[in-house]
Design a protein that fits this description.
The protein is α+β, with helices and mostly antiparallel strands. The protein is flat. The chain starts with a strand and ends with a helix. The chain has 22 helices and 18 strands.
Length: 635
């Protein structure tokens, strides 16, 4: 008998249907020579300190650092998990072979390996590796099963991550809780969560300490067009007024008109982070909510594997794209076919194959998130919105580039002393929208970043070099502004690039290797910061609480709160996965680092303590009352 183990009951039942295992035993399916069972995500976890020695059960500074000689695993303390594991163990011990059908990623590999280790299996194991849950993908995957040994580096990377999080998280949490916390109120410190919190706290301090300063901008209106002085802002009003007096009453002359044509390529396909960023900007969805929605779409076979960090497709996916387009063409929501008019112009000819989309060298385990071509049914409103983003992004990459023309006009005003002050205005005109037509009639267009850009784009009047005339100069006082608070969208981008603010797509892609956390875990990290009351949300803004700020202030060890150092750890974990770095060396380095951190904190003779900012029941009730009042006013 071949035993297959999936990560969720719904996935297991889909696989069983394809394999012909139709007899339902509640905890597994059977038939056609197969038994298909499942986990509920993590059934096993690393042992807790007290499992190694009773001395480690009580929280004591004298027991730190806690470094087990050999790490072990245990079943989670849950009756449902124990019951399901009993089924899995029974099936696996009598199996001729096993097929690991866990999610095709680092976490999925770890979940199933631990279960098989706990069951003490001895039979051969093969691996199902698929990027979508369509019937065709499952059938094809079973025809290409590989020996599990080929995925050993993936497992070692996942294991190293889990051990690293245990070593640093458990030791640092106990260390800081006992040394600086309040009795019974632990301070959570983690390998990824603490540097993420440090980002928010650092930005908040920048904002709090920011002192706005005035500056003055010289501009002038000529032929109903506002030109701005090219010499930039004036830091004193006197300077600005002096420049203003030089040009007042003098004619404005056009000295140069330049027109350049340019092109704009379609936006890249989505990886998980860019999808979370887009959903936060557009719909206000949290990173965790977006992950749950795209995971649901994957399990419904509508989109491909979501926990990815690449925005490219491998070259072999190209031949599947016409079939995916055909599926999108047939989709109808509420009697309307949203994509067929967009797909129609692409029909009757080969789809464009761009290196910015298809590049096997940029794809490791999985490709970018795209539709599968399966026609969606029964989607919730939010699922449909997320699917629409993925579908339009996929369609758009096969459209031609957007063609535009940029016009730059320079003018000047000369004073009586022949001193010239130069002014400039720029206009942009769309000559051929190309891929932009895919977003032209998008829902919530007013909130769409693309439509905002289009509002900013303007066609200038026709100016001729040498023309001259009257103008109306202005001197406007403005104030410098602080950096913006983080939102979930901008925080995800900062985590992706180890805290560096990067707008350029290509540069951001290069920095991903040193990002903190994995795409699939960043949402959970942000949620953890909320649950620990280290941050709170005001509209979309992420605000650090007094506890969060005090915790970062009290941590002097850069290793715990530096995004760059944590990014280096993440790079090493990726290198373990790709057999460029040794897992044992990574763990030994962490053991040394946590020992050093413990010794440094223990040497601190100050009597500092952190006040826990826990939201009381009264505060929560007050918030509810305030919300009800606002709703009542609107009515």
């Amino acid at each position: 008998m071949i035993v297959c183990i999936a990560e969720k009951p719904s996935v297991g039942r889909d696989i069983a249907r394809i394999l012909g295992a139709t007899t339902d035993h509640k905890t597994y399916m059977e038939g056609n020579g197969y038994q298909v069972t499942w986990t509920f995500g993590h059934l096993c976890e690393l042992k807790m300190p007290e499992d190694y020695t009773p001395m480690w059960k009580s929280w004591s500074l004298s027991s730190l650092p806690m470094i087990p000689q050999r790490f072990g695993i245990r079943l989670k303390d849950d009756q449902g998990i124990r019951n399901q594991f009993a089924t899995i163990e029974k099936l696996m011990r009598s199996a001729d072979s096993i097929v690991n059908c866990g999610d095709a990623g680092q976490e999925g590999e770890l979940i199933q390996r631990w279960v098989m280790q706990k069951a003490k299996i001895t039979c051969p194991v093969r691996r199902l590796w698929i990027s979508s849950m369509t019937d065709e993908a499952i059938r094809e995957g079973f025809q290409k099963l590989k020996d599990q040994s080929q995925y050993q580096p993936l497992y070692l990377a996942g294991l190293s991550r889990a051990i690293g999080d245990w070593l640093l998280g458990i030791n640092a949490t106990r260390l800081y809780s006992i040394k600086y916390g309040e009795p019974g109120k632990p301070l959570s410190v983690g390998r990824v969560q603490t540097p993420t919190l440090a980002l928010i706290v650092s930005r908040q301090k920048e904002i709090d300490n920011f002192k706005p300063e005035p500056y003055w901008v010289l501009a002038t209106i000529y032929r109903d067009t506002t030109f701005t002085a090219t010499q930039g802002k004036f830091t004193s009003k006197e300077e600005g007024e002096k420049a203003f007096s030089l040009i007042a009453g003098k004619p404005f002359t056009i000295i140069d008109v330049q027109k350049k044509n340019g092109t704009e390529a379609p936006k890249q396909l989505f990886d998980l982070t860019s999808l979370q960023v887009e959903c936060n900007k557009k719909f206000g969805l949290s990173a965790e909510m977006t992950l749950n929605l795209i995971q649901a779409l994957y399990e419904k076979k509508i989109t491909t594997y979501p926990r990815v960090d690449t925005q490219f497709l491998s070259d072999d996916i190209y031949k599947q794209c016409p079939q995916i387009m055909n599926g999108l063409f047939q989709i109808s929501f509420a009697g309307k076919a949203p994509y067929n008019e967009l797909i129609r112009p692409l029909g009757g000819k080969p789809l464009k194959k761009s290196k910015k989309v298809f590049d096997s060298s940029k794809v490791t385990d999985h490709h970018a998130i795209i539709p599968t071509g399966v026609i969606p049914k029964g989607l919730s409103d939010l699922e449909r919105k997320v699917f629409d983003l993925v579908a339009r992004r996929f369609i758009a990459v096969f459209y031609p580039d957007c063609k535009f023309s940029t016009t730059t006009v320079l003018g000047e005003v000369k004073s009586e002393k022949d001193e010239a002050i130069e002014f400039k205005v720029t206009g942009k005109e769309i000559l051929d929208p190309g891929w932009r037509v895919v977003y032209a009639k998008e829902q919530n267009e007013a909130e769409d970043e693309d439509s905002k850009k289009e509002e900013e784009e303007r066609t200038l009047p026709t100016f001729v070099k040498g023309e001259s005339g009257d103008h109306v100069p202005t001197l406007t006082e403005k104030w410098t502004t602080p950096p913006p608070y983080y939102t979930e969208a901008t925080l995800l981008r900062a985590m992706e690039t180890a805290g560096k603010f990067v707008e350029n797509e290509e540069l951001r892609s290069a920095l991903k290797e040193n990002g903190i956390g994995r795409p699939s875990t960043r949402a959970a990290i942000i949620e953890t910061l909320f649950k620990r009351h280290y941050i709170r949300k005001e509209r979309k803004r992420l605000i650090a609480t007094s506890t969060g700020i005090e915790l970062i202030d009290i941590i002097h060890e850069e290793l715990l709160k530096s995004c760059e150092l944590t990014g280096i750890w993440e790079k090493k974990l990726r290198d373990i996965e790709h057999q460029k770095y040794d897992a044992g060396q990574f763990i030994n380095e962490l053991k040394e680092q946590i020992t050093q951190i413990v010794n440094e904190v223990l040497a601190d003779n100050s009597n500092r303590h952190i006040t826990m900012a826990v939201e009381t029941k009264e505060k929560r009730e007050q918030k509810v009352r305030e919300t009800k009042k606002k709703v009542a006013k609107k009515k």
